Amino acid sequence: MSTVPETEMTIDFNVTEVDYEASKTRLEYALGVFVEEFRINSFRNLDRVEAILDNLGDKEADKALINSVLAILSNIEGQGRSFDFELISELGEMTCDFLRRVETGSEKMVLLLRKVVQAMRLVIQQDVRGEGGLTERALVACLRDAFSEAV
Amino acid sequence: MTNSTATNRGVRQASERADAKRHLDDNGYHVALDLLMSEIEALFGRRSPRLSLAGEGMKL
Fold first, then answer.
1. H helices of B1-60, where?
2. pLDDT at A13 over 90
3. Do the Cβ atoms of A45 and A76 come closer than 8 Å?
4. Which end of chain B has fewer CB atoms at under 10 Å, N or C?
5. Taking residues A107-122, what's their average pLDDT?
């Protein structure tokens, strides 16, 4: 008995000419749609992070809220890497590492996280791909210092 | 003009418009990041010299 599944799809083996330019345009368009979706989802997720930050400060509930922020930022971190937003992934990763080490929220920590959200918004809005330039590297260094002091 | 050529031209024009807009916004973006870094440092009572204003940040 054959294990090959039956399918209705047919392939035209008589195609002799491939329009590579048209295929490239379609692929670029599709990638553009995915990137736009990433941007929209990221902004929505950053809105959610800000809403959670509004409620941080009640010590009993803090760890659960921190974990919610961690989950959202992990998501952005992973998707960012897929679409060459390496800097966004780096910011997300640093923030997640920090959040894993804290148990309760503090005013300073909330302020710092709000700055991270603002920075991520700016970077996505500006469509900064890869690791960024001098200013972005300075931002990473600045946040690295801030996180090590905030723990 | 074929559909494919028209699509290519549309994609290219949209991309050029986005590039132009991005370039115009560059100064604002770098200044905003710089301000953000200053605010982060102020949270911890620090202030270090910024590269962005003297370097790539200010494309006047």
1. 3-43
2. no
3. yes
4. C
5. 95
What pLDDT is attached to residue B60? Answer: 37
**ipTM score assigned to the predicted complex:** 0.77
Which residues, 6 or more positions from A59, have their beta carbon under 8 angstroms from its beta carbon? Answer: A104, A105
Among candidate residues A111, A103, A122, the one with its CA nearest the CA of residue A146: A111
Size of interface A-B (CB pairs under 8 A): 69
Nearest CA in chain A to B34: A135
Q: B59 pLDDT band (50/70/90 cuts)? A: very low
* Residue in B11, B26, B39 closest to A115 by CB: B39
* Cα–Cα distance measured from residue B32 to residue A134, given in angstroms and rounded to the nearest whole number: 14
pLDDT for res A139? 95
Residue B39: list chain A partners with CB under 8 A.
115
Where do the H-state alpha helices sit in chain A? 20-55, 59-82, 86-100, 107-125, 134-150
pLDDT of residue B47: 63
- All residues of chain B having their beta carbon less than 8 Å from the beta carbon of residue A29 are 7, 11
B50 close to A (CB below 8 A): yes
Tokens 């966004």 -> residue: A88
Confidence of residue B21 (pLDDT cuts 50, 70, 90): low
